[in-house]
Write a structure and sequence with these properties.
The protein is mostly beta strands. The chain has one domain: Umud Fragment, subunit A (Ribbon), CATH 2.10.109.10. Helices cover 0% and strands 44% of the residues. A seven-stranded antiparallel sheet has the order 1-2-7-3-4-5-6, with no helix packed on it. The protein is globular and about 35 Å long.
Length: 96
Amino acid sequence: MVLMRVMGDSMEPEIKNADVVLIDQSQRQLGHGQVFAVGVEDLVYLKIIDTLSGKLLLKSFNPAYPHRNRRQGRPRRRRQDNRPCDLGGKGTALEK
């Protein structure tokens, strides 16, 4: 498990800028509408995950941010331990 501080307002009003979330790296099984940490290139995003025609659909709570499509199972790079870095784990917001 990893603690991650949120930067930005894309997940507001549920998860706010500077909130701390717990990322459970052991939970990588996708469920409809769950919040996950997702690695895209060199950044980690906290997003609501859905699937659409074999692709990951990354959604924000904040309607000002567009949805993003991401091909599932095709990471652009790998960690040193050779695991795909796309899904970092299920995220849970902690109270301040």
